[in-house]
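Here we describe the complex-level prediction in full. Unlike the single-chain runs in Section 2.1, the two entities below were treated as one system.
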Amino acid sequence: MANGDTSAQQFLETIRSIDTQTLITMFLILSIAYVLGRVITILLSKLSEKMNQSGRVKVKLIIPVVKFVIYIVAFYYIFRQIFIIFGPELFLLTGLLGAAIGFGVKDLFADFVGGIVITFEKPYQIGDKIALGNYYGEVTDIGLRATKLVTPDDNTVTAPNSLIFNESVASGNYGASEMMVVIDLYIAGESDVEPAMRILREAVVSSKYVYISKKRPVTLLHKALPFYTRLRAKAYVNDLRDEFKFESDVHTRTWIEFQKNGIRPPQLHILNIPPIEENIDSNATTRRNSS
Amino acid sequence: MGTQHSGSEENGFVEVLGLRDEIGEIQASIADYEIGKKLNIAIVAGTLAGKTTLLGEIEKINLSRATGITFSEIVRDRKEISLPDDAKRIALFDNCHYLYMRKPGGFDIFYEFLDMISSQERLFITTWNLYSWRYLNEAFGLERYFPVQIFIPAFEKENLRLFIFKRYGKAEIRFYNGKESEEEPLIYIVKYPLEFSSLGRKILLTIPKINTPYLKSRLLNKKETQTAEDRVFEKIYQESKGNPGIAWKIWELGLDYPRIQPEDVGQFSFDIELEYEEAFVLSLILSYQALEKAEIAEMIGSAFRTDEIIFRLLNQELIFKDEVGSFRVRPEALHSVVAYMEKLRLVW
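The structure predicted for the assembly as a whole is:
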């Protein structure tokens, strides 16, 4: 008992021995790391916007790694200060830290570990369009604690990094600048499918937003359902940020041409009937494209 | 001062400078066709690279067995692509990039053309703009219809010289050394043009260059100096990257008839900043080589926006209006425009 009291007293004495200068130094190191991380993020982001799409992705790939290295260096200096002060009492401090992580800041610690995993395993990168938990959007920042997404409605979502341990992450482009967009159009069941497919194909391949290559082909699918026909185009948008513009462009120009060719949309009363077997499939698409 | 070396008597040869291998390959395919092996030919090249000249030469060589058709605007009437019954066995189609319009419903003529070349017994020799070819190839698998593809290479420096000289009489052009060359320095500074598609810009890189003729003359006592003519054509070659059309334009801009000096040969770098739709229109003009305002309006679906966009592109001196009212990319801006288009991946 007396031994324990002595240790606690020693620890308190050591805490009291931390002078203001040391605290200021620690605070300065953290501040410098934060400011440096922000400045480098802004500079690299600006540089990436001046480059072509693949260059942009490559530059943005570096940002979380650089930030991580900056914070590691900062923490190294802070812990060095602590080690100088505490010396043999460090083990005691480690225990204290363990208790703190266990009771109070375990989520923060999990987020931090999540940040390390995201930085090095790269389930997604800055610039990717991802679905994480209930959110879908473009990754704009990967921090040590959280990932920032901008949703299609321009909301910034801050998702804790620990989400990747519990939720599956879907990345629409996974580091590439182009991304597949699935575009569905519904026409009346009695409409002629062949010209409709041709028009849809031409609207896709002639869009200013499309990207086509041997590895990124345009695929057209047709499904006849009891009351209407679904036409589905799978094509790649040149810049993933134009995902919705691409979809809208194809819709607009396809319908103008459909009308010229007498291809009609399904009747209104038919649209009111929820197609049960389609729900799962179309939900997946909608989530990817418009959530 | 110097004078040119070649005269106009070489005209027949210089028309197809540097394209002898390509002519040989096409003639070999024609010979194969005569013994029953039909392989359609696509001649592919960028703007002003010489594909029409090459096709013209093929027509001259095969005058008795070839019929030629040239498109100069987007084809809207299918009669324009149909060959008369008495047409010869080899059909030559120039500027086939005019066979489609990049919009829904704009590919009907193109489909008919593909149907025609696959169903007829004739041999089809066609020319395509490089960027239209790549686009149509990715979108429709065009290369399947043309087993023989000829990509026109860049001209060599000497061929560019002959290409320009063929338009003048002997000793008509006088070359003068400017200030740059007066001192005969061992090392001099040149601005070397480089296109960076990752940055979307053409950059004039300042690099030191060793004056090798001067060095040789000093070290080996050989009388070899770089003439004003050499310097002029070196600069033209660097700037044009072997494209004869660009080389000619740069020559014209630098020539103060009948005099020219190396310092007069311009180096062009355009800092292009465009909105996405403006860049798309520029990519269309690049891919078609020449487009009328109405054609652009049809493809982007707005006459009002077309006026605005053309105004912006003209203001930035990226395009010009030719004598028939079509818009073309300025030859001196071509490399900058291509670098910018590649950055945006609007051409592939």
